Structures are given as structure tokens and as C-alpha cells.
Description:
This protein has 5 helices and 5 strands. By secondary structure, it is an alpha+beta fold. The chain folds into 2 domains: 54 residues, no CATH class; 103 residues, Aspartate Aminotransferase, domain 1. The protein is elongated.
Amino acid sequence: AFVIDGFSKRYAMTGWRLGYAVVPQRYIRTIQCLVQNFLISAPTISQWGGLAALEEADDDLEMMRNEYKKRRDFLLNGLDKIGLEVSSKPAGAFYVLVNMKQYSNDSLQFAYDLLENTNVAVTPGIDFGEGGEGFIRLSYATSIENIEAALSRIEDYLKKISSH
């Protein structure tokens, strides 16, 4: 198996440009050659930060997981209250895929209109392929207060477009 991962999400180290690969023994040299053609190395401070994350971040990771779970549950509850369907409860990342087909089959236009009318940015489902059409992706990598404000704005917007 090949594992390619980074520190951005798991350790909240976005911008550090640090990642790693775990590959079968027979591919190590090939991966080394490939990587050295794309980059020389991550900055030294990023490497030290990554090492500290691996060695000392267990308590912080648990705290972040608990916080994200709280935010996820708050968002899912709020979406349910305004009648929006989420068919799969997130278990790993901090994103929720929301079915918007009752309001639009054009997720790109819906995302644009939502941003223009409410200042709430979402990712259109079409960005993930044809099967994502009719869905939007929301992130809960923000405060409960921001999630609450976004839910309120989305609810008001849906009422507005439903009355036309």
C-alpha cells in the first residue's frame, strides 16, 4: 500500500508545506528520485514543526477531534432543523456534503448565488465530479458562532428563493 499524507489538516499546519509518503520497500528509490525533481526539501522549521507534532501532539489532536465533533454535530443538527439532507455523517474530515436538489440542480450557480446573496461560501458539488451535482460542501473548520451565522443566512436565503 502507498500512503501519501501531510500535516495540514491533522496537525493544523496549513502553510507549512510538509508531507510524507510511506511506500513499499521496492519503490523507495523511485519515490526519492521523483520527489527530488519536484522539490529539494521542506523548510527546516517545517521539518522541526512536523517532528514536534509527531512526538508531542497527542493531547492537542484529541482536543481538536473533540472540537471538530462538537462543530460537526452542531452543523448537522442545524441543517436538519432547516430541512437539509445530509446522507453521510462525516467521520474523518471537517466537511459535510448537503443535498440541495430540492432547490437547484446547478450546484455551481447555487454556490455563486448563495455567496452573492448571503456572503456564505460553499463548494459546489460539481467540483467533485458529475455525481456531486445537486450538492454543496460545507466546512466546519470554523467557530460555532460562524456556523450558526451561516446556518441562519442559508435558512433565510432558502426561504427567499422558495417563495418565488
